[in-house]
Amino acid sequence: MAATTWEDSVKSLKGVILDMCGVLYDAGEDGGSPIPGSVEAVKRLKASDLQLRFCTNETQATREVFVAELQRMGFDISVCEVFSPAPAAVAVLKERGLRPHLLVYNGVLPEFDSVEKTNPNCVVIGDAAEKFSYRNLNDAFRVLIALEKPVLFSLGRGKYYKEDDGLKLDVGVYMKALEYACDVEAEVIGKPDPMFFQKVLDDMGIQSHQTLMIGDDLVNDVGGAQHCGMKGVQVRTGKYRPSDEKHPTVTADGYVDNLSEAVETILKLRGQ
Amino acid sequence: MATRRALKAVLIDLSGTLHVEDTAVPGAQDALNRLRQSSVAVKFVTNTTKECKRNLVERLHSLNFDIQEQEIFTSLTAARSLVEQRQLRPLLLVADSALEDFSGLETSEPNAVVIGLAPDHFNYQTLNKAFRLVLDGAPLIAIHKARYYKTKDGLALGPGPFVTGLEYSTDCQATVVGKPEGTFFLEALRDIGCCPEEAIMIGDDARDDVGGAQNIGMLGIVVRTGKYRVGDEGKINPPPYLTCDSFTQAVDHILQHIL
Predict the structure, then answer these.
(1) What residues of B are in contact with residue A182 (Cβ under 8 Å)?
(2) Residues B170 and B185 in one domain
(3) How far is CA B82 from CA A28, A100, B111, B199, in A?
(4) Quick one: CA torsion of B86, B89, B95, B97, rounded to 10 degrees?
């Protein structure tokens, strides 16, 4: 039943948005490795008449570094096609004249080079991993609690993710911690925020109903995209779990074994 | 609201109410002595999780407070009894200085997480370890959920934010044993042998001291010392029975208007 929904809409598609980690590659110690068939699948999409963009909540590296890593794996991808939370946050900060105190991974700091940071009047947190120490969190807390109206931005709101050596707490946990400490609600930048998806649609110049999102995160990728009026398909790679197909609130428009299968289906139905 | 009866007991918070770190709140020692000369029983209830009871008493004595160890009821005591009751082997995320109150407990191959205020342990690796245990089904026991506390150089995060983060990541609810839990106050009142309607709580935390106490039928007085920030009394409903500038003023009020 679900499968036909998205396959029926394939002919009217004008663009595809791909999640990255868990769809294109699996994370790992040495930067990760491509998921079999994904390099070829991206190549085929690019050669088609569909627009293609990439959308990630990755906040541990600048887009330049991150994209170079994917190119090393063989992906045909360029920086301008990738949407990640840090540049989106920079745009919001500038628009609202905010000066952030940053609690982010060192690798992503250069994204914030152009932003004024003295005398901070808001806090931005990303997945800072080892930098999530008591001291660093306390520094962020003190900035917030000293503000008349604390403003907290969180780059994504994930609970945890998987690495080679086990599950690791993600940024959402520390976002919750600061929310609780300061009695404030964070503004989430990145998936599943509709504004974030809208930027990608604007860049392609197409409408949401003409767009398909493919991801491994049922709630943030698929649910987030559906909320904006796109179709959302989940791949059975990355953080996918069989229980996702029985999720109480989010049902994907389709499930495929991997990106390769999704692209094969799309192109076949479009007669390419 | 239940009918009030004659006052039998006063529960008093320590940190922020009688002292801030190593400095006594001016006049607090004398006020405590005056209160002791009245007919009410006095007990000290604290969410201080960094220190074992022995350290607490030593500090209070050095600040010239007349307080005995058996008069103090802490959230660590409450956590220990819960762990013993349920025969758990806890991973103890508490400050090293608090470990004494858990001595003798089996902690190898942990099947529970006890989380207090442990700045030295609140790092990415240890929190990941606690997270994995809880995700695998280990109960999460929080000594308390205070948002922040006051130190000499400003406000600092309490255990509450870390407990909340772990709850979010694992979709589970922590069992909280310290203030503002009703069971904590009831346990503290038990050996005095009085009911909540016969007791009053004095503290600097509107929510955890006063809100918690008032929820079970006690009266609560907020003092504007320690972590108190302007407007705190408006954060709880019903509002505090009374807000005073300091512990001294709270004692004066009790002696003149309640007794």
Answers:
(1) 147
(2) no
(3) 41, 43, 14, 25
(4) 90
Q: Is residue B53 assigned to a domain? A: no
Start-to-end Cα distance in chain A: 25
Distances from the Cα of A272 to the Cα of A6, A14, A204, angstroms: 17, 14, 21
CATH 3.30.70.860 fits A86-189, yes or no: no
Out of B115, B146, B176, a domain closes at B176
- A128-181: pLDDT as tens digits: 999 999 999 999 999 999 999 999 999 999 898 877 777 889 999 999 999 999
**Cβ <8 Å between A142 and B155:** yes
Which pLDDT score, from 0 to 100, does residue B3 have?
Answer: 62
> Hey, of B132, B169, B235, B236, which one would you mutate to test binding to chain A, going by the most A CBs within 10 A of its CB?
B169
A161-172 confidence digits (pLDDT tens): 877 777 889 999
Average pLDDT in chain A: 94
Domain limit, last residue, from B141, B156, B176: B176
Question: Count of A–B CB contacts within 8 Å?
Answer: 86
What is the token pair recorded at B109?
A: 């191959």
Q: Where are the domains of chain A?
A: 2-84+192-269, 86-189
Q: What is the DSSP letter of A128?
A: -
Range of the domain at B122: 88-176
B218 touches B201 (CB < 8 A): yes
**B153 near A CB under 8 A:** no
The CATH topology of domain A2-84+192-269 is: Rossmann fold (3.40.50)
- Is the residue at B237 inside a domain? yes
Give the angle A238-A24-A209 at the CA atoms, nearest 5°: 95
